[in-house]
Amino acid sequence: MCQKGQTLTDAQLDEAQRLSKYLTGRRCSMEDAADYFKAVKTHGAILDATQKRLWRLMMRSSFVLRIVDAAFVFTSPASVIRKRIFIMFCVLETSSQFSDIFLPVNRPRIYMLTVALRAFRAVLACVAGVVFVKLMGYK
Amino acid sequence: MTGKSKTYDVIVVGAGLAGAQACQTLVEAGADVLLVDAGLTDKKGRQRFPNLDFESVRRTLNGQRQLFLGDQFEGIPWGNLKVGAQLTPPRMYITELVDKWLPLISDTFVPMESLAYGGLGNAWGAGCYMFSEAEFDLMGFSRSDFLDAYQTVADRIGISATNDDAAPFTVGGLGNTMPAIDIEPRMEQLLKRYYKKRERWNVRGFYMGRPALAIITRKHGRREPFAYEDMDFWHDNRGSVYRPRMTVDALTEGPLFKKLLGRVAIAFSEHDAEVILHTRRMDNGETEEFKSRRLLLCPGPLGTARMVLRSTAGDARLPILCNPYSYVPMLDWRHLGKAMPLRRSGMGQLSVFFDPDGNNSEVSMASLYTYRSLMLFRLVNEARLTLTMHAS
Q: Out of B113, B160, B237, B257, which could bridge B251 as a Cys pair, Cβ 3.0 to 4.6 Å?
């Protein structure tokens, strides 16, 4: 569980937690959050003014985060926004705390149905996201 | 006496697979050998993994992020990587400084070259193949003249293989091979399905079998048998997979062999009784020359072409032919939602060969791997997927 530290601001902590929650359904540790920002800096995943506007909305609403991520898979796969989410994905995958999520495990038969439903939801999110991003004037 | 004033029997350029084996053969024949190589090593010591299987590492190892992603997060891939998409941080040094020392201008041709000590052999897939009779014919040689050489190299590096339908395309006919590495149950099932309709596949020119790999399944000198930890992309702790540097290191202990690292071979000039090798020091850019009675060029096809063109051909142009390859992700829905066996290998599991003419001359091949230890993020980067794990 993430706790407020001295090196990260509240906004930074909130961003890391929101991404962690979106990607895994769990909160990340302070160390994960710090590493996320170190990696963002190292990889130059810095947002410009337009991207910042969209990013702020994504950080306020997990729904917006989900649909924009889904939309950018097709419309802007190389965008900095997606890169930041991907960096957090890498950070979380390399944490023993999240290994049970990322490693393959035996699941019940109903799991296939869940996957199909999630895939369908991802398609809907993508459509909604493309419309939303266009309305926002983001190219 | 080092280098410049001495005339060696043979100078070998390049410490990769070809160079290392050539050095050993020459030294065993009593030749006085100098090996010249750039010889880059991983100065960050990024192979600090413990001898644990992949899942244990992932579930228990604190500080694993530094090992999996690198000190500077250099292991985070992004975008369409043209070269070395599977190189993990412990292996990234093998392509370091290539842009500076081996520049290449092309929009369409993106080869992978290395200045590492041991060359691309530090990250190869360990697949072993012999040229076929038809291929030797095209080169004007007879295959039978090379079988002893193949056997010698196979005995040195240790090859695990099975005499199945893949053997004629790999190392069929060689003796002293070790038992093939075990493959995963899902690959066993695939192989069984192939054997059920084997004749039908073979009529169409398709053959399937286990690959021949330079991976030992029995103790071989100082090297330990393969331990199925699925850490093959991350470290060489047991030395089960053959690396050319093992050969060079062993030779360094003898009196007839000298290695000189930190030099990039530029060109050569031939004189009456000797060859002069022109090199450039990587630390200060100064040129150095070394003399020998024979020169053996083993810096890979491109490195050799560069040197020959610089040395002999002026501004001539050389056509390059290269086999294209692709990575194709495949999903076996029957294994969705199932755990993978702990005891497994990250190396090639099965090989499929397409030989439409049936004479082993124009063969296409596919290697089948199962995916886990290269991490999910690498797959996600290459595929267009939404990132959330929470959803699935």
A: B257
**Residue at A136: amino acid letter:** M
Of B55, B64, B387, the CB nearest to A69: B387
Do residue B372 and residue A104 have CB atoms under 8 angstroms apart?
Answer: yes
Rounded-to-integer distance, Cα B59 and Cα B189, Å: 29
Q: Give pLDDT tens digits for A47-102.
A: 999 899 999 999 999 999 999 999 998 898 889 999 999 999 999 999 999 999 99
Q: How many CB pairs under 8 A join A and B?
A: 114
Instruction: Identify the three-state secondary structure at position B301.
Output: helix
Contact A96 B380 (CB under 8 A): no
**CA–CA separation, A111 vs A52, rounded Å?**
37
Whether chain B has a CB inside 8 Å of the CB on A47: the answer is no
Angle between helices A80-93 and A49-60 (to 10 degrees): 50
Query: Do B338 and A122 count as a contact with CB atoms less than 8 A apart?
Result: no
Per-residue pLDDT of B189-225, as tens digits, reads 999 999 999 999 999 999 999 999 999 999 999 999 9
Residues of chain B scoring pLDDT < 50: 1-2, 391-392
Chain B hits for A23, CB-CB cut-off 8 Å, are: 387-390
A72 to chain B, any CB pair closer than 8 A? The answer is: no
CB B299 within 8 A of CB B14: yes
Radius of gyration of chain B (CA): 22
Q: Given CB atoms, is A30 within the 8 Å cutoff of chain B?
A: no
Gap between the Cα atoms of B156 and B303, Å rounded: 25
Q: Which residues of B touch A38 (CB under 8 A)?
A: 73
- A96 with B391: Cβ contact below 8 A: no
Contact call for residues A96 and B62 (beta carbons, < 8 A): yes
Nearest-neighbour CA in chain B from A113: distance (Å): 11
Residue A40 sits at the chain B interface (C-beta within 8 Å): no
The arithmetic mean of pLDDT across residues A124-129, rounded, is 94
Q: Do B392 and A118 touch (CB under 8 A)?
A: yes
- CB contact under 8 Å between B389 and A86, yes or no, is no
| Residues B389 and A102 sit within 8 Å (Cβ to Cβ) | yes
CB-based contacts of A122, cutoff 8 Å, min separation 6: A70, B386, B391
As separate numbers, helices (DSSP H) first and strands (DSSP E) second, chain A gives 7, 0
Q: Which residues of B touch A20 (CB under 8 A)?
A: none
Q: Taking the model in full, what pTM does it have?
A: 0.91
pLDDT at B1: 43
At B269-322, the pLDDT tens digits run 999 899 999 999 999 999 999 999 999 999 999 999 999 999 987 778 888 888
Q: Are B221 and B204 in contact (CB under 8 A)?
A: no
